[in-house]
Structure formats: structure tokens, C-alpha cells
Amino acid sequence: MARNGGFTLLEMLIVFSVVLVLAALAVPTLGSAVRHQEEMYMLAVLRADLYGAQQHAIAHRRKVSVFFSNGRGEYRAVEGGSGRTVVVRSLPAPWRFQLSTLRNPLIFTDNGNIEQAGTVWVKSGRGSYKVTFLLGKGRFYVQKM
To answer: Which of 5, 28, 56, 96 has the fewest CB atoms within 10 Å of its CB?
Structure first.
């Protein structure tokens, strides 16, 4: 009896089983990659909001105060004289701010400098980051701890 070149049911089941095992091994790796990308996105948004508050202070020649909610994952930037809100943001669920050496609020002066240096921690159950604000020219950086 001649074969027509097709695959048997047993051959197809073996290939399907191998593909399922490989997929099952890849899923946990994808989960950690997704969490890492969410962290990077959240930190990028925080940086962008802080730079935006600094640029608002420079453009409008007014102080901008950034308030971090200690123990919660919220922050807001408010323009000095008018009290107008520049930005309000909430971080994803497990994330929260913990004030370290920085006293609330962080103030960007009308030329973009920071009035007082200090650090703020951004923490969750999986990791923590230290945001350090330096005196002069409104510089800050984020470190994974």
C-alpha cells in the first residue's frame, strides 16, 4: 500500500505536544518582561511629568510645586501664583511614594532650578527606585535599588 505523503495522527500529536511544552516554558518569561516594561513606562511618565513641570515653570516664569503623596502613588504639580494644576497623576496599584530627605513640595523656580535637594523613593512589592533631585539646573535621576 502506497503513502500519499501526509502525516499520521500520532506524528501530529507529538509535534503539537512539543509546541505546547515550549510555549509553557516561555510564558513565565513573558510575564516578567511585561512587568519590567510596565515599570519602565511608569518611570518614563514620572520623568516626563517632572520635566514638564520644570518647563512650565520656565515658560510661564512662575514657581511650580510638585506634591508627592507620602504612602500613596499620587503626585500633582501646581503653578505658584495662580494655583492652577499643571499635572495630576496616579501610579499603578502596588506603587507608592515614600519621602526620604525631600520635604514636600518639590519646587521648580521660575528659571527651572530646584529650591531644595532631596530624595524620594518609588516602591512596590517587586522593586524600588530612588529619585534624587540635585541643586542647580533642576537635575534629577532615577536609580533602581
So the answer is: 5
